[in-house]
Every structure is written in C-alpha cells, then in structure tokens.
From TrEMBL:
<dbReference type="InterPro" id="IPR013096">
    <property type="entry name" value="Cupin_2"/>
</dbReference>
<dbReference type="Pfam" id="PF07883">
    <property type="entry name" value="Cupin_2"/>
</dbReference>
<feature type="domain" description="HTH cro/C1-type">
    <location>
        <begin position="16"/>
        <end position="70"/>
    </location>
</feature>
<dbReference type="InterPro" id="IPR001387">
    <property type="entry name" value="Cro/C1-type_HTH"/>
</dbReference>
<dbReference type="InterPro" id="IPR011051">
    <property type="entry name" value="RmlC_Cupin_sf"/>
</dbReference>
<protein>
    <submittedName>
        <fullName>XRE family transcriptional regulator</fullName>
    </submittedName>
</protein>
<dbReference type="Pfam" id="PF01381">
    <property type="entry name" value="HTH_3"/>
</dbReference>
<dbReference type="InterPro" id="IPR014710">
    <property type="entry name" value="RmlC-like_jellyroll"/>
</dbReference>
<dbReference type="InterPro" id="IPR010982">
    <property type="entry name" value="Lambda_DNA-bd_dom_sf"/>
</dbReference>
<keyword id="KW-0238">DNA-binding</keyword>
<dbReference type="InterPro" id="IPR050807">
    <property type="entry name" value="TransReg_Diox_bact_type"/>
</dbReference>
Length: 205
C-alpha cells in the first residue's frame, strides 16, 4: 500500500477494531484467545503499536479472517500498479512480507505477497487458514510442513494446507519468492457472510 493510503499501522488499527467489533469480542477476550497482551492490542487499535508477521497471523487465525482483512485496502477499479518501494514491509523473525494485492473471485479470496526470507533465518508458523503457495524466484528455500522437509530453488513451487505447522528457511543467502494465500468458502465460512466485501465491512493483507 502506498503512502496515500496510510501506513500498515493505520490500516491495521482501523481494520482490527472493525473486525473485532463485528465478531463481538472485547479486547480482553481477544487477548485471552490470541495470547497477545491487552495493552499490545490496545496499541495496535490506536495505531501506535508495532505489528509483526507473528502478531498479524495470530490475530487473523483467532478472528477467523483472511490476513488481508486486517492489513489491506480495497484496490481501485481498472489498472492497478503496485511499486515495491511504496509498500511497507511487515517483518517477522525471519521473513519480510509486502502485501501486493487482494483478489476476490466468486467465493474465493487470493492474497499476493512479495516474500523475502532473510539469509540464515527461519520463519516458523503454527498454521493459519487457507492454502499456501510459494514460487521461489532466487535463492535456496527449505520448507518444512508437518515434519516433512523439501528444498526449493529458483522456479520451484510448493503448495500445502496452511493450517499445518510449517516453516521457511533461507539455505543459501536471502530467498526472494512470491507467496499466494488462497481462501475458499469451505475454509472460511465467513466468506458467505452478507457483510463480507460490503462497504460497511470493507477489507482490502
């Protein structure tokens, strides 16, 4: 998202409060479910917090929404160009993500990310909704899903149920890749909610 649309902090602040309220959850209850401190959640909703990949994925998992419900604007119609230099990085322990686009088609949602796994680092995930697809552009990427390990090089692809515990490891320098997260109606029951995608319940990270 570019500067004119607001920072990741500002977008997350507005979306988090809206989604939490729509779900009928208090800050205390969301804190209990997610394991994220109430003070931290309050800071995130006020736009003063420092969101990380781990925090955003945890919130999306507990709120049962696509990640882009929390971190994205709805793109304008027509030609859409996203400049890498204008997209804020959402950083994790080992990965930097840039959310490029949310695509809605029928009862499916697809999120498109530029993903970089930092040299010598590993990014672990306990799992989240959707199906995960990664195409390596450069570098050597180690992927572990439910204990099964594979190694990918440039041009290689991996796909798996994102609900399974998984991790990415940069095996030889920084790894550049494209990450797609695909949510189907049967995976995300709320996609059938009449409020999904409406102006009053806008999301689109």
């Amino acid at each position: 998202m570019n500067g004119s649309e607001g920072s990741v902090r500002d977008v997350l602040a507005a979306n988090l409060k809206r989604v939490r309220t729509r779900k009928g959850l208090s800050l205390s209850e969301l804190s209990r479910r997610s394991g994220i401190g109430k003070a931290t959640l309050s800071q995130l909703e006020s736009g003063t917090g420092n969101p990380t990949i781990e925090t955003v994925f945890s919130l999306a998992r507990e709120l049962d929404v696509p990640i882009s419900d929390l971190v994205d604007h709805r793109p304008a119609a027509g030609l859409t160009v996203v400049r890498a230099a204008e997209v804020e990085v959402l950083a994790g322990e080992g990965v930097d993500l840039r959310h490029l686009r949310r695509i809605e088609s029928g009862d499916s949602v697809i999120e498109v990310y530029d993903q970089q796994v930092r040299a010598g680092c590993t990014q672990d995930s306990l799992g989240h909704a959707g199906t995960e697809h990664t195409v390596v552009q450069s570098g050597r990427l180690g992927v572990t899903v439910n204990g099964r390990q594979v190694e990918l090089g440039p041009g290689d692809y991996v796909g798996f149920d994102a609900g399974s515990p998984h991790s990415y490891t940069a095996l030889d320098g920084t790894v550049h890749s494209v990450l797609l997260l695909h949510y189907r109606a049967e995976q995300k029951p709320h996609l059938n909610d009449p409020g999904f995608g409406s102006k009053g319940a806008h999301r689109s990270v």
